[in-house]
Automatic annotation (TrEMBL):
<protein>
    <submittedName>
        <fullName>Universal stress protein</fullName>
    </submittedName>
</protein>
<dbReference type="InterPro" id="IPR014729">
    <property type="entry name" value="Rossmann-like_a/b/a_fold"/>
</dbReference>
<comment type="similarity">
    <text>Belongs to the universal stress protein A family.</text>
</comment>
<dbReference type="Pfam" id="PF00582">
    <property type="entry name" value="Usp"/>
</dbReference>
<dbReference type="InterPro" id="IPR006015">
    <property type="entry name" value="Universal_stress_UspA"/>
</dbReference>
<feature type="domain" description="UspA">
    <location>
        <begin position="25"/>
        <end position="161"/>
    </location>
</feature>
<dbReference type="InterPro" id="IPR006016">
    <property type="entry name" value="UspA"/>
</dbReference>
Length: 161
């Protein structure tokens, strides 16, 4: 082994993305307006604030094919939910201004909740995903978004009751 420290670094020294190297940089929180999702957003906000990470609140607008086929205004309804969520988040951030400062963004797009959260977490290079526990009884049988995210094993997932 040589003691020569002046050698040029090789290709292995090129920096590359690595999750969680110095604490989380991006924390994704799923929001759908349910009480459990608001608790998840609040928990994720606390994590992001303490870690100086970006909080990305993600609302995936469900695509309701049957309702759309019947001519119901699905896109308008889900867009209204997204606007309501964003206004609630802005209110919360404004209440904490000067007390707790944090970086955040709101992301929304149509899709199914599981695939949408996976897409958002991948595109944002999330270090962690936080979601609320499902409040629907049927999810105990067929599996919830939270269980599917945990099984995917791509990021640490926190499920907030």
């Amino acid at each position: 082994m040589s003691d020569d420290m002046s050698a040029e670094p090789g290709p292995a020294a090129v920096p590359r993305f690595e999750r969680g190297t110095d604490g989380p940089k991006v924390i994704v929180a799923g929001a759908d307006g349910s009480d459990a999702s608001w608790r998840a957003v609040a928990y994720a906000a606390g994590l992001a604030r303490r870690q100086n990470a970006l909080l990305a609140v993600v609302f995936v607008q469900p695509v309701l094919g049957a309702a759309a086929a019947l001519g119901l205004p699905v896109a308008e309804a889900t867009a209204a939910v997204a606007e309501h969520l964003l206004s609630e988040i802005r209110l919360g951030v404004e209440r904490l201004r000067g007390i707790h400062e944090m970086r955040w963004q709101f992301v929304t797009f149509p899709g199914d909740p599981y695939s949408g959260l996976v897409r958002a977490a991948d595109e944002l290079k999330a270090d962690a995903v936080v979601v609320g526990a499902s409040e629907q009884a049927g999810h105990r049988i067929i599996g919830s978004v939270a269980v599917r995210l945990v099984k995917a094993g791509r990021w640490p997932v926190t499920v907030v009751p």
